[in-house]
């Protein structure tokens, strides 16, 4: 299977050599200053998790922390220079992050919005800054330093107040029409609620891969990564969209990870492996979208199926990775049904609703228990202002209800209120 997928990419490269753009991005460079931009992305987030009677981390006889509540405001500043003119363009990007606590306290912290001190209190504020130098030749860019990354085998998480940041180098090449290739090496990952240079314990990750769009409707991806002293991953994706009528369409999205874990990482004294895949189908009819998804995990260790985090908290590009659970345990199989509504068709542009239900079963919890189950029901509403002084301001409410049995024992509700506003300075 790996050989076939690599062959597909090779054929795509060969076929695309005649599709080279007449003018490259670098030849059209505006200049270091002229092409610069500065934005401050504001995120105000309230989050609580109620773990019911059996608190998170508790047992049947001893409860853990049953309630977590945090509220804060995050400032995500990004400066991106243009590239100098000439054959080799040079530029600089910079990131500045600041998180400010608005409310939380001892015994209520721990949702991942803020660092937590030894006394159990969330810090009043935390910050981080970094920069990266970048070079561009034609349509190929090398970027080295602190940066955000969004690749299926290495993806910085942005699901809390402030995003993760990675440190290393990444080459992105788009020399062939429809084909993007990536080659990278990173040696540090800072967590979304941490300020340390490498708070997630990443020593080194090397990655290679790319995406090719055969047509406007069909695209494929293939990536490989190697996390030192941890695991190797292969990721594949196929996405196809088919128009059925003027206001109808059908889309298919297939994702698969094959992970080989090192013995020193598993703690079992031997190498282990996991394969997890998902297939989602979405039927769209005007303002309505209906999705059905199936996901299956094969293998793992110590109830772990698909493992991620040391390679980025967003490295889980799977159909049933939702608000709280990823439905990725050892040998787990899960189903999802989802409904989306875009109110623009009814004269209310910017307003949307979503609800979904996911059920997972056949989870191997060890010790003869191979039938643990989990369910999650999510509800979400979002409104984005379309015009006026508040243009692009978004208001979002997310609610999740989660239940689990037979060894997982972690019932909870997860509520998030999110206000976001991008402010363009340059």
UniProtKB/TrEMBL annotation:
GO cellular component: membrane
Keywords for the protein's UniProt record, in alphabetical order: Signal, Transport
InterPro entries in the record: OM_porin_bac, Porin_dom_sf
Signal peptide: 1-23
Lineage top rank: taxon: Bacteria
Pfam family, one: OprD
GO molecular function list: porin activity
Protein family: Belongs to the outer membrane porin (Opr) (TC 1.B.25) family.
Protein name according to UniProt: Outer membrane porin, OprD family
């Amino acid at each position: 299977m790996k050989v076939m997928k690599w062959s597909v990419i090779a054929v795509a490269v060969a076929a695309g050599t005649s599709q080279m753009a007449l003018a490259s991005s670098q030849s059209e460079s505006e200049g270091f200053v002229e092409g610069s931009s500065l934005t401050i992305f504001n995120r105000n987030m309230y989050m609580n998790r109620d773990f019911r009677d059996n608190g998170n981390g508790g047992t049947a006889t001893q409860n853990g922390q049953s309630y977590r509540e945090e509220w804060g405001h995050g400032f995500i500043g990004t400066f991106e220079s243009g590239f100098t003119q000439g054959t080799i363009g040079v530029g600089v990007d910079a990131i500045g992050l600041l998180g400010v606590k608005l409310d939380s306290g001892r015994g209520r912290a721990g949702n991942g919005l803020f660092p937590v001190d030894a006394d159990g209190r969330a810090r009043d504020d935390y910050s981080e800054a970094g920069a990266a130098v970048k070079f561009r030749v034609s349509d190929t860019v090398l970027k080295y330093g602190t940066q955000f990354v969004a690749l299926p085998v290495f993806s910085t998480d942005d699901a809390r107040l402030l995003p993760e940041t990675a440190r290393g180098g990444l080459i992105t090449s788009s020399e062939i029409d429809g084909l993007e290739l990536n080659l990278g090496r990173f040696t540090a990952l800072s967590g979304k609620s941490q300020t340390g240079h490498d708070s997630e314990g990443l020593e080194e990750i090397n990655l290679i891969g790319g995406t090719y769009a055969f047509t406007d409707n069909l695209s494929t991806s293939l990536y490989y990564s190697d996390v030192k002293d941890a695991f190797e991953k292969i990721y594949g994706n196929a996405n196809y969209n088919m128009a059925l009528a003027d206001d109808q369409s059908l889309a298919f999205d297939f994702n698969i990870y094959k992970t080989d874990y090192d013995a020193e990482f598993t703690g079992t004294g031997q190498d282990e492996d996991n394969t997890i895949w998902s297939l989602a189908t979405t039927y769209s009819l005007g303002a309505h979208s209906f999705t059905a998804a199936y996901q299956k995990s094969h293998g793992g260790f110590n109830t772990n199926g698909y493992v991620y985090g040391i390679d980025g908290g967003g490295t889980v590009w799977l159909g049933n990775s939702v608000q709280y659970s990823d439905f990725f345990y050892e040998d787990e199989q899960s189903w999802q049904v989802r409904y989306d509504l875009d109110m623009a068709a009814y004269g209310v542009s910017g307003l949307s609703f979503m609800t979904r239900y996911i059920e997972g079963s056949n989870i191997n919890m060890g010790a003869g228990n191979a039938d643990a189950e989990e369910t999650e029901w999510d509800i979400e509403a979002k409104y984005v202002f379309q015009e006026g002084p508040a243009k692009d301001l978004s208001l979002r409410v997310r609610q999740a209800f989660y239940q689990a049995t037979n060894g997982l024992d972690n019932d909870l509700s997860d509520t998030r209120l999110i206000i976001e506003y991008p402010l363009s300075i340059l």
